[in-house]
Design brief:
The protein is α+β, with helices and mostly antiparallel strands and 407 residues long. It contains nine helices and 23 strands. It has four domains: 74 residues, Carboxypeptidase-like, regulatory domain (Immunoglobulin-like, Sandwich); 96 residues; 126 residues, no CATH class; 46 residues, no CATH class.
Length: 407
């Protein structure tokens, strides 16, 4: 069974040019507010306001997503472009009358169901990788869960920002969860994060630095940056192209539903549902044969072009790159093997030997834009399968992370 994963809410800082100090004030009803969090999303750059509501941040020239956040007030998401910055910024907070969805306002019962949902949330959000073992949510009690059985939809809400300690990568992360949804095998989450380094001695710092490099290698961020620089081949990526078509051996959804209805209606006597029915003699035999075939995958993938070049994947116009390939991409990272946990994530996996990491890039619209910093302008315009869907929040790095070339 394939897992699909949407990577949401990610922006990359621009290349280092020069530093600039961003100053500003935060008010509520014209009164300054102290201790308001002001940070650049998904980076290690952040601060809080002083008694006068003032803040300042030293940043490199470029475009950023500046977040102004204070509990009980609407979050401010400001597109900061240092080129246009000329005077101190002013932000006026507005009280959030609907701080929480009505569902979240309901009292959370910390029973066995909640514990089960928490475990499911950790699996889909934190992940199952080696690094996930050392990644801990410090305040899980702020989470509230809902499950819609009709839609097979699992959602999570957070009353306060999540505090996440990643002992594998050496970060303390404040994560403001905006949305977490799982429908069938499709998982998406959106949030704003601020990273801080954990304290540790030389040995710990060396281990963290090595783990960060391992987490970066072969990641979506690594691939996009190397694609922009046209160095993806020498950095270990092989990009192939494949078409996804309906599996003709699998019955249609309409036929499957009719077969299931007939079986439900005809459940009398003793029927051996496990026996093979190569030549159905009755309508009920045919129904069981159809239901068995419903276990076949809905789609089949056909590789038709291998080892793509940069010109096969993207084109450039006005400092933006456009994805121009047809169908889908299969991306192989040859410099690292799969983790054993990746093989064990499915109960009936037959493979025991790790292979090179393989992921699929599935676009949901044509002409997806990547700007000069190497980001998808619309994160929901594509989703990932394979190894990239396995590596989740426990393997995420701040976007101002730069790998050490000496490692």
């Amino acid at each position: 069974m394939k897992n699909r994963f949407f990577l949401l809410g990610i922006l990359f800082p621009s290349l280092i040019l020069a530093q600039i100090t961003i100053k500003g004030n935060v008010y509520e009803s014209n009164s300054p507010i102290e201790n308001v969090a002001v940070y650049l999303n998904n980076t290690m750059l952040g601060t809080t306001t002083n008694k006068e509501g003032e803040f300042q941040l030293k940043v490199n020239e470029g475009e950023y997503e500046l977040i102004v956040s204070y509990l009980g007030f609407k979050k401010i998401n400001y597109r900061l472009n240092t080129v246009n910055y000329t005077k101190p910024l002013r932000f006026d907070l507005v009280e959030n009358e609907n701080v929480l969805n009505e569902i979240v306002i309901k009292k959370t019962v910390y029973n066995e169901t909640w514990k089960h949902n928490l475990a499911s949330f950790k699996q889909e959000f934190i992940g199952l990788t080696n690094l996930a073992e050392d990644c801990e949510i410090l305040n899980p009690e702020v989470l509230h869960f809902e499950f819609d059985y009709k839609q097979n939809k699992f959602t999570a809400f957070a009353r306060k920002p999540l505090k996440i300690r990643n002992n594998g990568l050496g970060y303390l992360i404040t994560y403001e969860l905006e949305d977490f949804t799982k429908i069938n095998n499709y998982v998406s989450y959106l949030g704003y994060s601020r990273y801080e380094n954990l304290k540790g001695g030389k040995r710990k710092k060396k281990r963290w630095e090595l783990n960060r490099k391992i987490a970066y290698n072969g990641s979506v961020v690594h691939f996009l940056k190397s694609l922009m620089n046209n160095t993806f081949t020498e950095e270990g990526f092989i990009v192939n192209q494949f078409k996804r078509v309906l599996n003709k051996k699998r019955p249609t959804e309409e036929a499957i539903e009719k077969a299931r209805a007939l079986i439900r209606f005809s459940r009398i006597g003793s029927i051996n549902v496990k026996r093979n029915i190569d030549n159905p003699k009755t309508a009920l035999d045919s129904a069981y044969a159809i239901v068995r075939k419903s276990r076949l995958p809905k789609f089949e993938d056909y590789l038709y072009k291998s080892q793509l070049k940069q010109a096969d994947i993207i084109s450039q116009k006005d400092n933006q790159y456009y994805l121009i390939f047809d169908d889908n991409l299969s991306i192989v990272f040859t410099k690292e093997k799969e983790e054993l946990r990746f093989l064990r994530r499915e109960l009936f996996s037959k493979r025991t030997t790790p292979l090179t990491q393989t992921s699929s890039f599935i676009p949901l619209k044509p002409n997806i834009i990547i700007d000069e910093r190497g980001i998808l302008k619309e994160p929901l315009s594509a989703y990932y399968e394979g190894y990239w869907s396995y590596e989740k929040f426990a393997n995420s790095l701040p976007l101002d992370y730069a790998p050490n070339p000496k490692l």
